[in-house]
Amino acid sequence: MQNKEKTYLGNPNLKRANVQVSFTPEQVEEYVKCSQDPIYYIKNYVKIVSLDQGLINFNMFDFQELFVNTINDNRFTIGKMPRQCGKSTTLVAYILWYILFNPTSNVAILANKQTVAKLHMDRLKVAYEYLPKWLQQGIKEWNKMSIELENGSRIIAAATSASAIRGGSFNLIMLDEFAHVPENIANDFYTSVFPTITSGKTTKLVIISTPNGLNLFYKIWVDSAEHRNDFKNVEIHWSQVPGRDQVWREQEIRNLGSEDKFRTEHECDFIGSTNTLISANKLKTLVFRNPIYKNNEGLRVYEKPKEKHSYITLVDTSRGQGIDYSAFCVIDVTEIPYKVIAVFRNNMISPMIYPNLIMNTSREYNEAFVLVEINDIGGQVADILYKELEYENVLISSVRGRKGQTLDGGFGNSDTQLGIRTTKVVKRLGCSILKSMIESDKLLINDIDIMRELVTFISKNASYEAETGSHDDLVMCLVLFGWLSTQTYFKDLTDLDIRKTLFQKQINAIEDDVMPFGFLSGVDDDENDEFGGEFGSTIL
User: I need a labelling partner for 114 at 20 to 30 A (CA). Which of 58, 313, 364, 418 fits?
Assistant: First the structure.
């Protein structure tokens, strides 16, 4: 009966609060060692559940020790790690040490899913129950998703959301699989929580994940690697895990079904897909910059207007209903390489207000020429911009029958239209030129949202579009620019001939009646005509 009174709710593995413990001299010495060295504590006293062996001591690998020491020595840590390498178990073991030896600490374990957060809490509970009683703190609260100890430390587990820990004060926050948290939730959470962490002097934030495209996790990782933030980064390769060799790799690829999935899940490749418009190898080399100015409406500026520079604004329009984005890119076309120097992206702006923002930004950039995509509601934006706001530098295209659409300033006897309608032919040519521009460094991107869209801009249905759940509004602005750069009128505007710069060798080959590898003839005469005199074919 006396022993039962010392336990928490009859659990013989847990000590209730306010139970006195007598320490032997050896236990006092061990307690001091554990409090000073989390590695020593974990290797000697933490138990984990192995799939093959059941309950065992946590015999840490070298990279796990490195991870723990990095967390302990730094306030901000980000880890890029493969699946099933013990990253979550390692961090849970450290959290257990942290709440025991740092009284009155508040800790949050947040994961991309509630079930994953609960799994982490269950691991921590198992490890706690098998600690010697003299190492335990008495239990005051032992719930499914929270624990409170008699030393005042408390730990909660939840799914990552903007409101998960709003209003709380935390000494340590763990974000697991942060790259797999939906983008809108991740951004809202980080914006609301990070200031509360940075306000302290000893508070810690730990972010771990396998990559999942160029999202917020990617941005924090790259900023850390380039010393643009205070995060210390830790990267683990699958080959560092004992037992994983080339035979294991080949078996895992067979089980996953593709090498793309293996690259993402185990090689921690931010760019997993190989069927993107821009080659995966090129996407990996793109480097984003932090804007020199941004506002809450979605405008980001990378360079101020320069005297005597020429600019073009490419415009894509949505209905402002929170689904697709209204987007535009301002490109400096003064010289090659061209540069994206300002972008706008917002999925709530009204099409009635959007033209004013386009005009104001374009005027700032030396009365930039504006090319509006007029599919769907875009025609209304072009009309307001040109007819009501009287912005004169709206580019006009002509529809020339079998030759399709051309940009000629609206002169001639053919039908004219404000802006350009994105047909299959326009999109195909624009994609081809855009691919060549980016891969040959003739167009510099700068913006991370464009890079994110390029990663998910994949081959589908004999064309390119955003994969399901992603967007391509900024990329389509660049596709329009690719098409625009092939027009004779573009050369007149800029005194630059991008076709000659990019394709002189190919053009020479065509003139010599040689069909280069990688070129296909157009599907029909109408499509060939729209490509222009020199472009009777398209690049795959």
Answer: 58
